[in-house]
Amino acid sequence: MRAAVAKLIWVCGLAALLSAGCRSPWQREDPFLSRRADVQEQQPQADQGVVRSSYEETSDMGASIMELDEEPAGSAWQSTVEKLKPKNVAAGVKKAVGLGPDEAYAHQRYEEGQTLFRQSKYDEAARRFKKAAARWPDSLLEEDALFMLGECYFFSDRYPKAGDAYANLLKKYENSRHLDKAVSRQFAIGRYWDELAQSKSALMPNFTDKTRPHFDARGNAVAIYKSITLNDPTGPLADDATMAVANSYFARGRWEDAGYHYDLLRKNYPQSEHQPEAHVLCIRSKLRSYQGAEYDGKPIQEAEQLIEQALAQFPTELAGERERLLEARRAVRFEKAQRDWQLAEYYHTGKYHRAARFYYAAVIKDYPDTPFAEMAQQRMQETEHLPPEPPNHFRWLANLFPESRKL
To answer: Is this prediction's pTM over 0.85?
Structure first.
């Protein structure tokens, strides 16, 4: 149905343009010929006794040619294409049927909406604010009407519509006068959905409760939090929204996403009250995202650095977490020792004993308080008299190509 209406509007707009006598770009007059005729009419007569130097004639002729060569600012073709855009066609149709921009009408609907809003008639007020915004676009009145539309939905407990209304306001007016209040409303909606998701199943659709979205309340809450940090990154709720996103991912076991957003909070909001908690939860996220010695060791390296920072920066705030942090540091050292031990064992299995002994020695030196140090000491004794590398059974082939040994 919508596609048919859009097609009808487009056809009506095209018909209106054609009926208005829109001139084809190939039918427009030659600007050079028309300009030359004007110049000839304005040229002074010879009997007036005006004497012109060759320099003046040359300069005037050059200026005239430059003017003639200039393309008109808006050609007929460009004008036609612009008018045929769906947005402009729709605006033309609205104007033709009496729904074009009208400041007086928009102000009247806005005042009616304000009166209905004060009377708590939010649904009727929302209809007035919609009309006000539509009839006087790109204005302060539209900005105020879009904000009041969100307020109507918010106070009538239609939070999905309210979230969309505030998002539309901040999308069109990035530095809106209502930014602070719109962001605070968005944060309240996000917190409500986040708490609701803890008691409601995420897989159950919703078609009766107008206070929550149809699907995935927690995911919609995260989207609202991210909208806050995008539209008001330096505002008073930006760090709260970032922390809420990280906590949401942490609660769902998405450790890498949680660690990433905890890192954002630590780096972008150093004065935030969430800093101590963000350090602790970031450490846990990185430890849980670590998959073992066979995989990337970056998470435990970052966790080790965070543990040292937390112990140094928040000795009072994290006094109750100190023992857990020390236990986490021992766990990180164990995992790092295991990584070096397994690497040494890999070279030992391939009979590259010199490389293996290098890593055994590193384990003994760097991790003497782990069980891998004792195991590495035994390996050092076993490989003491073994050849550093396995025998090369293809030496005769290398001797056939002596130049290859210089490469």
So the answer is: no
